[in-house]
What does this fold into?
Amino acid sequence: MGSSYGQDILRYRFQYYDEEDGRIEVESHYLDYKHSWGKTSASLRLAIDTLSGETPVGIHARGDDSDWIFQEIDDERRVAVATIEHEIDDYTLTFEYAHSKEDDYRSNAVTAKMSREFNQKNTTLTGGVSFAFDEVLATDFTSNFENEDKDSLDFSLGISQIVTPNTLFDFTLGYGRSKGYLSDPYRRISQFRTVVVDGPFGPIPVTDTFDFPENRPNEQHRFVAKASVRQYFEEVNGALKFSYRFFTNSDSVEGHTVELKWIQQVNDRLSVTPYLRYYQQSEADFYYPVLTDTGVDGTGLIDGSGANYSSDYRLSKMEALTYGVRVAWEPRSDLTLDLQLERYEMNGLDSQTPSSFFPTANVVSVGAQWSF
It folds into this structure.
């Protein structure tokens, strides 16, 4: 942020996410306003996400493990984020508060960051801490019969280094811990087994398909490391950005993300940015498409105690490919318009999870920024 006085920036973005085959679609509206005076700025973001469609809930029809059940969902999320940033000599201090609300979830989070410039502003160190205190709300359709708490604490430390006038290097480390109700209240899991129930004339064995709410551990630790390099090529007036992100958590999920971007400045007012991102992860140690023949019996518990299990396909061994292009145009010096088209493809890498679980989506977003 510079030291200009009375500078205002207003941004609006609309995004439409559409999964094929009648799956999930999301319409998102974002409105940002930022006001700067001296070495201080304040900004406010308002967002509304409207979600509808169908998604697998992790269970199959009774007696038929090839007939998976998809559930219709309809929800709306409202988000507000307030940020204050202030420069003191070589330091920049940032404080942020975020609140979001939907029918079954409420979140409040605070974040504090501090960065300092060294080496004639060629090196910047940034450290941050955030705390989220969330609540999973009970509804007629969730497995929790009362509101459940979920708390998260995250730390980050990063360095940004100008290596040459045309080369920028960034590296970030992060650690986080979540504790409380960490399950998805809509996810269930099926098991075909025999149980003994009390009958009018004594115990009776019953063989059938039984469904249980998922029961994830009530504590999770996670670690993230990300490195990126941006190289500007003067001869073509373009820049190449490469990044790699490593992620792992205490649930045995290990993820790798590689991203390539080419930022081509066509002229002073037009830029085109094609990009490609690939992600691959291992499965969680408590992931099962079904509990039948696993040696693990469903219990109906949701507090993390006892056996842990989840049929959420997002915890399976899988990969995802994202590719797209962003075009930005400045019709005048105080106005920027942009259009982004994106394709998202997710695929399973195990032999057990049904391929119908993994979505393919198209994403379109348009935005405008006005400085005044």
